[in-house]
Specification:
heterodimer, A: FAD/NAD(P)-binding domain, FAD/NAD(P)-binding domain, 4 domains, seven-stranded mixed beta sheet, six-stranded antiparallel beta sheet, 21 helices, 22 strands, about 15% strand, B: about 850 residues, alpha/beta, Glutaredoxin, 6 domains, five-stranded mixed beta sheet, about 35% helix, elongated
Chain lengths: ~675, ~850
Amino acid sequence: LSLALYTSSLCAASSAAFHYHDYCVIGAGPSGLQAAYFLQQAGRDYVVFERSHAPGSFFALYPRHRKLISINKQYTGKSNSEFNLRHDWNSLLSHDGRLLFRHYSRDFFPNADAMVHYLEDFASLLKLQVQYNTAIIHVTLERDEQAWNGHYFLLTDQDRQNYKCSSLLVATGMWVPNVVNFPGSEYVEGYETVSINPEDFAGQTVLILGRGNSAFETAENILGVTNFIHMVSRSRVRLSWATHYVGDLRAINNGLLDTYQLKSLDGLLEGDLEDLAIVKDKKGKLHITLRFYLENRNTSAGIDSITLPQDELDNFATRAPYDRIIRCLGWKFDFSIYNRSLRLMPGKGNKKKYPQIKPSYESRGTRGLFILGTASHSVDFRKSAGGFIHGFRYTTRAVHRLLENRHHGVPWPSTVYPITQLTNSIIKRVNEASGLYQMFSVLADIILLRENATAFEYLEEYPIGVLAELEMQTGRKAPNGLFVVIMEYGRNFSGADKDVFYYNRAVGEAQHAWQSNFLHPVIYYYKHLPTEREMKLRPPDWPLPRPDAVHHIVEDFLTDWTAPNAHILPLRRFLENCLSTDLRNFFAESCFFFAFTRQKLPPFCRQGYVGMQGLVGSEGLRRHAVEAGLLEDYTPRDFSGDRTPDSHEGSQDQLLRDHVIPVRPLQHLINAKDE
Amino acid sequence: MSAQKDRWVSSFSFLLFCASSIPGRGSARLLQELSPQEYFSSLQAGRASLAYFSHNASPGAQPFLEQIENSAEALQDYGISVVKVNCPKEDVSRYCGKENALRKAYLFRGNMLIREFPTDALFDVNSVVANVLFALLFNEVKYVETLADLQNIENALKGRSNVVFAYVPATGTAEHRAVMEAAFVYGTVHQFVLTTEAALLRDAGDDEPDVSSARLLFCHCQRATDLAQPCRRTAMGQALTMLNIHRHLKLMGAPLVTEVAEDPQKVSTVHLQLGLPLVFILSQKETYEADRRTAEFVAWQLLGKAGVALLSRDLVDLNILLRSNVALKTPDEGVPVKYLVLEDTDEVITLVEDKSKVGQIQEDEEEEEEDEDEKENNNQDIQDDQVVEAVSRDKKRELPLEQILVLTEETFHSALLETARTVVLFYASWEAVSLAVLRSYTEVADHLKGTQGVLLAQVNCWDWPGVCTKENVTQFPTIKIYEKGERWVMYDGMWGTEELTSFIMLSRVSCPLKLATIEEAEGYLRGEFPSELSSYHHTSVLGVFSTATSEAREAFEEAGNILSGHVTTGLYFEDDALALSRKYAVSPPALLLARSGGRIVEGVALSKQSAQDMVRMIRYELLDIFPEITVQNLPRYLQLRKPFLILFSDGDIGEMESKEMLKLAKGRPWQTFVACWLNLKKTPVGRGVLKVYFATVPSLPLLLWVNPHAGGQVFKFPSEQTITEMNILSWLEKLKAGLEIPSSTLSEEDWKPPLPAYDFLQMMETALPEVPLHTSHRRGDTPAPESPGGDTTVREEPSQQTKAEKGGSPGRDLRGTAPRLAAREKQSKRHSEL
């Protein structure tokens, strides 16, 4: 570390005007710190700029009512730390067991202060290079053929201090409030500043603009003291338990839905805020009208001359005047600091609050600029968890791995296993991997097959959006086909207007696994790496192009996919058929038999028994296998006759190749039926 | 088919002949016309005749006479002549005189009048024949009116003879005639009982009391032993015709279960001759009694529909699957016998009764293997992995784990420091192979109970993935032996109790062990030193070095380290090393190998210098010259990649053979082949190997040349020759020259997937054809699955089903989250449900 500091100071000294770093990270929020952690672990030259004096400045203010809606599960009944991360939505990834969020809060929905505290500890315990009180106010490019990406990033802070970086990681989050301008919008209070003291709302009538979690959170806080609350927004309310998207309205905040549906005065309305206008009467009450009426009225006439909807339509819904109107419309990315040359463009449609990025999280406009954290959510907006800590901690790691390969020649980490471990590797991952689970349909484990399918290479949590570029992005080769392991919800199951509680919503039989609705593992098999074009032409709502074969592991109520017959067996059959081999396990005795009766041995015998690691098995197990009809017992038994004792059996060879049903004596049925 | 029919038809030509009653043909010729005097004088004792008397001109009786004339031929078959007696006009005798008498027919036996029939009882040929026979067979065919009558007859006959009980709605019908004709033939064999009482039919327990049609039941009274029980009855399914009755009686008369001891393809029984299928119940010695009962049970069910045979597999060498338990042979020629695996007797019965299925089987012929797969696709979800299945069958047994310390992420490192040696099994609690090893591991723990300085521990990597990752455990299972938390060795031997125990024991001693005195070195070779291992049978390797050869010594030390656990290595490099080397006639640097407690000590000069070479050399030297091949040690010899010359023996090999083989082997240790022997008592799987080579186990001992590495040919040493070095050598020469014919060749087949997988891609395409899987231009254009109509069907349809299922088997619902979609069309087969 001191060496890194030393070299970086050397650099600074050599280029007098600039402080140079290989990597600059803007923002010491969760994703900035997460990126810093990986850069630090890899021994990279990096710095994190934070405008505030401490990490997580967003969380110091927001959410206003201080309750995080990310789950902080203390107990899962399991000790598997990787599995437990599936139900820990707040921790960042690190090797340090102290830095688990459950050590910072015991609340299921923790207080935001705990997050601030946690981020402070994360930065300090891991000794991350964070430069506080540094607000980057301008970013531009400097062309240079020598630079990693053909240009350097030049950053300027509030004190006109300049920094030069080869790679820029933007982790600024989304902090610019979304504002709607309409006549009278000056009467609207913003979520950022509105009082959080319920007493300030006692006996008032409140209109809330927006229908997200912040709007409902605000409503929840004052629900008990207001006359009533109305909530207006363009879109229908989307409940996260119906959409499986954590960014939609969470059940913890939906008290207002209750009071609305039970006719306790509160209410929900749909309407375009752009058409709205607000007029304030002499008593200070706020009236809703339409922009249309304002445009038609005589200028400079008094308030009384303004037409209100109820003048024409006397049962207009929001004809009652409001005491306060609160805007809770969420946040957008701060585009202002980037020079035009960076071509950092807003997305289209409902993604316009996000910068445009590729599925590799790299900006579409500038090579070497990566968007991390919640601002990178355009990749999986309204689908997966990439906009939230429990999602982007994994995508940040993925970006880091891409960078390691691109700039430092460190290929994507992988493990090579013999083919006999194929089923096991998949079962292990789908049962414990948290990145696959949280970033479902976005991050995938990739299994690259070696020649003749005797071994394979396992890559974890690769962004499937750039599957076509796999070889270039990871430094690994995929000439012999590959498996892609992802998690998926059933298509057409989740959605705003879907009944997710219908009867028979869950599939229990392995043969109908493809109809599974809840999150379940899906394995795609490709004989060749899909091309860019195939990725583009993939069917709508498919995360991947049409594979050569696909397997669904049937959804499981406990998300425990270790059942030998329902989960592992069908998976094995799928893998066997893709690879055209036999992946069964055999006891040493069977391998012995095959060694003398077949010229070729099944992979399990080849890799185990022949390598002197045969599975001898206990006598009890042997007996079970014999009873199951899966192992031949050649032990001579005493017969009264003098016939060869073993003449009853078929060839074991045949027996093992065919599917086997244990021979059941028929006679037990007779007793019942004979009468 | 027609060929068979001909066969069985012709074999009963007699009956056919009996039954043929073509009206008109030749009736004129058969009908005798006699005068009364001629007639009465022609009557022979015991011979029956039917006569009617006519005055030539009585037109009223004409149709009646015609029928009698027509019956003449039919009756003649039963030895009954039909005579028209022409009464002279003036005759006023008993038969000719009265006008009344002319309206009747008279049946005589000899000259005794048995019965007179009114003309209206003889309305057609059937009624004539039926009534005539009924009258004649008065004793053979009992007419009953009540159930009690029937039971009395049955009871009287129990244990002696069978009863044929027929119901006809009326006498004189075709059915009545058929019964009578049958009674004429079988009357002496079975007791015939006839009734026209519909109520009696119902009381007799016929399951289809359709009283408008005739029925025939075969009552098995001969077999009835219990007098209190009514006789078993088998109804005849077909219409009552002479032919059908005959067939039925023939079937009833056949043995219930035929025992066969030949190839089913060659078996022929009355059932096959009669065009019925034959079901074989495959039996084996151990289950014979049960199989016999099964066969009888099935036979009763199939009585009249198919034959049942009990085939003893022990007696017939069938090349069929062990799991097959039923075979079906259809009467059609050229159709192979079909072997099946059925799970209950109902399946056997449906198999036979379901004609279409039989038809299908006949059509299938060659594709049967694949077809079976296709049809029984749900075999896919039946476990065919012996290890997984064995472990899951064992999962309810609690493992004796008290000797094994369970480690966690927190306790792992501290535990390693506590004992000199900690053996750690890293496993995953869901992984079958590691669970199988865990079972052996508990046995190891039991063996090592009380051994000082060794602690057995386990880590479940499913619970503690962190430790496993840190310890670089990438595969399950992994066993590592840690020494005071410093060094560790990975276990790389067989996953067996014995091998692991030995490894742990041997690795307790430092390897190589530095020996200080020549006494220690001698003791080491005798296996007495170190004392920890004295009671433990093992091979020792002693490296003898002069003080000068430090390079070789270091390499040996490293080699010893690598071999730690597999073999004990000792090191002696004191000044008097020369004395030791002289004793065993080697010059240092050299190795001394001590087998069987130091009784055999071999010296090997050390020429190789690198540790790896030394390891290889020591491993090689440790191989036996003429080993007994076992499941556990085969891999070591397989690695030589040489053909095997194996002597199969049932028990220990004879001294002579052993000596000759050893002589043969000693000359050429593994240059061209591995000479070894196999004890079938110890390695019973060898029998399986022999069965593959020769279909049966030939007489032993048996010398084979097997080359699994190239060509896979198996040659058998001629059994008439004695096993001597000379004979074997000349035989091997012949082999080399290609003069011998291989007895067998090992299959070259690849290891393909045992069964197909679920083709979800195809299912998706079939179920959702509107979802384009190939292209993307139809975004948002997937109406069916999204439309509310589509949803409603899914939502509403199942309610009743769900209830029914809930009532039926509680707990099934809980297989998914709660209810199940689509799965209700078909319940899949699981082991737990079979």
